[in-house]
Each structure stands twice: as structure tokens, then as C-alpha cells.
Design a protein that fits this description.
Blueprint: E1 4-10, H1 17-29, E2 34-40, H2 48-53, E3 58-59, H3 71-89, E4 93-97, H4 99-111, E5 116-121, H5 127-130, H6 132-142, E6 147-150, H7 153-163, E7 170-172, H8 188-195, E8 202-207, H9 216-226, E9 234-239, H10 246-255, E10 262-266, H11 271-276, E11 280-283, H12 292-299, E12 304-307, H13 312-315, E13 322-325, H14 330-341, H15 344-361, H16 364-379
Parallel strand pairs: 1-2, 1-4, 2-3, 4-5, 5-6, 6-7, 8-9, 8-11, 9-10, 11-12, 12-13
Helix pairs in contact: 1-16, 3-4, 4-6, 9-14, 12-15
Length: about 375
């Protein structure tokens, strides 16, 4: 049987939740039935070597990203290049991730007559209010896709609203996680020593790229509120790529007297080790889809404090696997962090419940099986 050629199209394989998701899932889908290629429309990204090491090629446009100084020209050239790739390689399936890739590759896949076209949305559509033209284009493309996927019930609800009566091709596939990579407790002391964190300190971990909607400013306000109330030393480790707000956040932390307590670690690929050094996970986002960072924190046995946005509540069971607080409410965020910091028994109980929930409900095996079942149904 000839392999079915599948192109997975994304902006890049820079470190992020969607990108890590693909690095976990695609190697398990590559077999005698599927020949998979990842197409990065912007650049390769730091995770590209990992993907290629798993036997999945990553291809990008063969011209300089400097063309991005003129965005319309860049988009036109990328679109023409992608059409040529589709013409030459004739994919059976095109599966797009994230908005820009969807608009470009979704349009090209329709024009080139790709047999199976799939879109995955992994965030709420709040960006539609800022980009009305993108909203119109996406709604048009939806009608020409064979399947629209969401990874949380909140996203599925929005897709149904966009599609109106045409809802039969909307499907929910939750993200999955390779749990064995986490909870490396034996590395805890070593990682803390490497980071210069005292053994007795309470460590909070925020795994989120430094983007305004991830809520780091609110997180700093919360820690300003509880800094003097904590009965032990504490540290906050912030892991994520800077989108241009790091200097502002550092200044705010310094003004609040928190400078020496916060470690800005930048983009890292050793997240499991960093989580092993922590006691509490936190995500203060103003909007979300179904965050990989929360899944990873739970898999590492951390109680999670999250805001009530997107799919966070679908992951974290309030007062059982963590604490869910309103978005943009630093006072309640502070209260939740303080409660966990001062109660080791509660941290342990919630952490164990959270890890068990990931194993039972959000395993990588289940996620891969759901993707495979979807592709098989479309192919037949």
C-alpha cells in the first residue's frame, strides 16, 4: 500500500505549546501508512532538529526572511512557493496549525485541489476582533475544509458559532502528553543548585512565552501582594521566549521589590527538569486555548493555579488538582498562590491528583489514536 503524503503546515517550529505538541504527536503518526513533512512558512525554528531526528523532514521557503520588512510581498512570495511545493509533491492531506498558516496553506490547498484539508485551531478566536479581515477569510475557508479541529470545548463552541448550521465537520481532539518525561524528582536538588535556588525555598513556575496576554504583569502584582506574607523564601522561575516585553517586566519587578526573587530563564528545552525543581505551577493568562504548559505542570505533579479562560478549567479541576481564579484579578491570584505556598499537604495532594488526571484523560497515546482515527475516516 502506498503511503499517504501528509503536509503539516505551521509558521515555524519555534518553542511553543503547539510546536511541542507536534513534536510529540507526529513521530507516532509516521508509519507505513503516512509520509509526513512539516512546512514552516516563516522559518525552521529551534525544535526543527528534534523533529528531523524523529525522521520527519522540515522544509521552509528558500529565500531570506528579510522579505518580511514588506509583509504583503513576503506573503505573496510564500504563497507562490507553497503552491509550487503542492504542485510538485501532490500531498494527500494538508493539515494546518495556527492562523497565518491556515490562511495561506488553506487557500493554496483549495486552489491546488488537495484531496483532504484539515484546520486545527488551538486558541480562542479573540484575534478576530483585532483582525476582521482574517475573520472573514477564515469563515470562507471553513466551508472548504473537510474537518475543523479544536483542542478544547471552548474552542469548539466558537467554531460552531462561526459555522452556524455546518457543524458536522467540527471535531474535538484534546492534546496529549508523554507523561514519562516529567516528574524527575531525582533531579530536583541538582536543578535548584544550578539555578542558585535555596533548598528550602518555595518555587513557583510560570511556563509561558513573554506575550502580553499571558498575564505576567498580573502575576507580578500578585507576588508583590504576597511577598511579605510568605513564611519561607521563595522564587519564581519564568520560562519563555521574549516577544519584546521582558525589559518592561524586569523594570516592574524591580519597582515592586521582586527583582532578586524572579529568574527570567528565557526559552528553554529542559522544561521537565525545571518543573521538577518547582513546587507550584501558575498560568495567569488573559486568554488560552488548551495550554500545554498546564498539562506539563500537572504531569510533573505540581498543583496548578490558572485563570478561568479557554480550556484551563477543562484541565484543572478547581480545589482538586489546583485552583482556578478569575482572569485579570491579581488579588485572587495572590490568595491562591499564598494558600498553596503555606500548605505542603495541599500541594502534594493536588499534585498527585493532577498527575493522575493527565495519565488517565490526556495521555499521548489517546491523542495519537484520535488523530489516526480521524485521518483513517477521511481517507476512507
Amino acid at each position: 500500500m502506498l503511503k499517504k503524503r501528509m503536509f503539516v503546515v505551521i509558521g515555524s517550529l519555534d518553542v511553543g505549546g503547539t510546536e511541542r505538541h507536534l513534536c510529540s504527536v507526529l513521530p507516532h503518526l509516521k508509519d507505513k501508512k503516512f509520509d509526513i513533512t512539516v512546512i514552516g512558512l516563516q522559518r525552521r525554528g529551534d525544535l526543527a532538529p528534534e523533529m528531523e531526528a524523529a525522521g520527519i523532514p522540515v522544509i521552509t521557503p528558500p529565500f531570506s526572511p528579510r522579505l518580511r520588512f514588506c509583509r504583503p510581498l513576503h506573503l505573496l512570495v510564500v504563497t507562490i512557493w507553497l503552491a509550487q511545493v503542492f504542485r510538485d509533491r501532490r500531498p494527500d492531506i494538508v493539515h494546518t496549525f495556527l492562523p497565518e498558516a491556515y490562511i495561506i496553506a488553506g487557500s493554496v490547498s483549495i486552489i491546488m485541489g488537495v484531496p483532504i484539508r484539515i484546520m486545527s485551531r488551538r486558541s480562542l478566536n479573540n484575534y478576530h476582533s483585532r483582525r476582521p479581515f482574517a475573520s472573514l477569510v477564515e469563515r470562507f475557508l471553513h466551508r472548504h475544509m473537510h474537518t475543523l479541529l479544536g483542542n478544547s470545548a471552548a474552542i469548539i463552541k466558537q467554531l460552531r458559532e462561526e459555522m452556524g448550521e455546518r457543524q458536522t465537520k467540527i471535531h474535538l481532539i484534546y492534546s496529549g502528553l508523554e507523561v514519562e518525561r516529567f516528574a524527575r524528582i531525582e533531579r530536583r536538588s541538582d536543578i535548584r543548585a544550578e539555578l542558585g535556588i535555596p533548598k528550602e525555598a518555595i518555587v513557583f513556575a510560570a511556563i509561558a512565552n513573554l506575550i502580553p496576554y499571558k498575564g505576567h504583569a498580573n502575576l507580578l502584582e500578585a507576588f508583590e501582594d504576597i511577598s511579605e506574607k510568605l513564611s519561607v523564601q521563595w522564587r519564581l522561575i519564568c520560562v519563555g521566549k521574549d516577544s519584546g516585553i521582558l525589559s518592561t517586566l524586569k523594570r516592574q519587578a524591580h519597582e515592586k521589590g521582586l527583582g532578586g526573587k524572579i529568574l527570567w530563564l528565557g526559552q528553554r528545552t529542559d522544561v521537565p527538569d525545571l518543573l521538577a525543581a518547582a513546587d507550584v505551577g501558575v498560568l495567569a493568562s488573559l486568554e488560552e486555548g488548551f495550554p500545554t504548559a498546564v498539562m506539563e505542570g500537572m504531569a510533573a505533579g505540581l498543583p496548578m493555579v490558572v485563570t478561568d479562560v479557554g480550556g484551563n478549567r477543562e484541565l484543572v479541576i478547581d480545589n482538586k488538582t489546583g485552583i482556578v481564579v478569575p482572569a485579570q484579578c491579581p488579588k485572587k491570584l495572590a490568595s491562591a498562590l499564598l494558600n498553596l505556598a503555606n500548605d505542603a499537604g495541599l500541594r502534594e495532594a493536588m499534585g498527585l491528583e493532577g498527575r493522575a488526571r493527565i495519565i488517565e484523560e490526556f495521555s499521548l497515546e489517546r491523542c495519537v489514536a484520535d488523530y489516526r482515527a480521524l485521518y483513517d475516516s477521511l481517507l476512507h
